[in-house]
Amino acid sequence: MLNSQQFSGLVQFGRARYGPMNDISNLQASVRDDIYGDLRSFTMWPIGSRFRPDFAISRLDLATALS
């Protein structure tokens, strides 16, 4: 038989709002979702109002961003 217990706690919700990024509107929806996920996790960030998806990076820069 299970005994019920009272429990009280705190639930917090966060909400992210993104400014418009002028250069991702032509990308596929799944790619845009990946970009927004990277922004939420602070893995990547835009430069001003542009994400610049066509910028090339070095392997060192990529490894640094992912570590």
Would you mind describing this structure in some detail?
With 67 residues, the chain is mainly alpha-helical. The chain has a domain at 29-66. The protein is built from 2 helices and no strands. The protein has helices at residues 29-40, 59-66. The longest helix has 12 residues, at 29-40. The radius of gyration is 19 Å and the shape is elongated. The mean pLDDT is 84.
Summarize this structure briefly.
The chain has 67 residues and is mostly helical. It has 2 helices and no strands.
The class by helix and strand makeup works out as mainly alpha
Query: Helicity, in percent?
Result: 25-40%
The number of distinct β-strands equals: 0
Mean pLDDT: 84
Gross morphology is elongated
Please summarize the sheet with the most strands.
none
* H and E order: HH
User: Count of helices?
Assistant: 2
**Gap between N and C termini, in Å?**
48 Å
Poorly predicted residue ranges: none
Radius of gyration: 19 Å
Beta strand %: under 5%
